[in-house]
Amino acid sequence: xxxxxxxxxxxxxxxxxxxxxxxxxxxxxxxxxxxxxxxxxxxxxxxxxxxxxxxxxxxxxxxxxxxxxxxxxxxxxxxxxxxxxxxxxxxxxxxxxxxxxxxxxxxxxxxxxxxxxxxxxxxxxxxxxxxxxxxxxxxxxxxxxxxxxxxxxxxxxxxxxxxxxxxxxxxxxxxxxxxxxxxxxxxxxxxxxxxxxxxxxxxxxxxxxxxxxxxxxxxxxxxxxxxxxxxxxxxxxxxxxxxxxxxxxxxxxxxxxxxxxxxxxxxxxxxxxxxxxxxxxxxxxxxxxxxxxxxxxxxxxxxxxxxxxxxxxxxxxxxxxxxxxxxxxxxxxxx
Length: 335
Known about the structure:
335 residues
């Protein structure tokens, strides 16, 4: 329920709620202002803007901003992803079909295959691709000129991008987690687009449990709408919000079943830790990667667990959230 990722079905649901312009985009004021300057300056020159790299955790609006960039430029958007391009020929086919001024959006760009990366270097800098004809000693490279275009890359792990690729982006924007005030605005705007009445207190409640992520906020809003439609009178008030989120096991801090299972295992089975990730994952019945990528980032950010060389450790805030008394041996004192 509170995982930051989205599947194809949810992306379709999100499409109706996406803002269409920078003015409608809520939050990320610094990135919006910087990006507005880049786009309007390019429009004034009548040229394609510099390539744009958007980094940050999932669910914060990188794909939405890519769509807004294309809209602001008055051009079309080509969408692909790093995992989908495993050969240089795949990327060459996409690049050779671009028209002048188009925007190419590459999601999870850090997962591009190495041969495709090297082809992209030349395409971004010189607007050309070298098409290899033949094999072996008789092979030859034919340069193919490309019209000016703009690459918008999105990544959740900017540190994995090789320096040569990162340096070819003229603008880099990092998206941070949202505060509750901005998330309230997101929820109110989405409720208006969905055509459901939303009380201010309910918007505040949903925003406070959304883990700083608009995608999670919109997901919780849709689930509260479902509860109000089936078990309520259709009005999204505070009582409906709290009742719906209780059904979906999202507590006041935005923790779900997996988050609380991790905290409870740390505190009740291992005395607050330290405990290794694999042991913790087996205890809660999940894969280690799931615990590390879905539950752990938010728990660490909220100061509920700590990562030490010896393993994961529960902080006093974790014990307090579970309503438990921390031990007196001070295992977590260094966190």
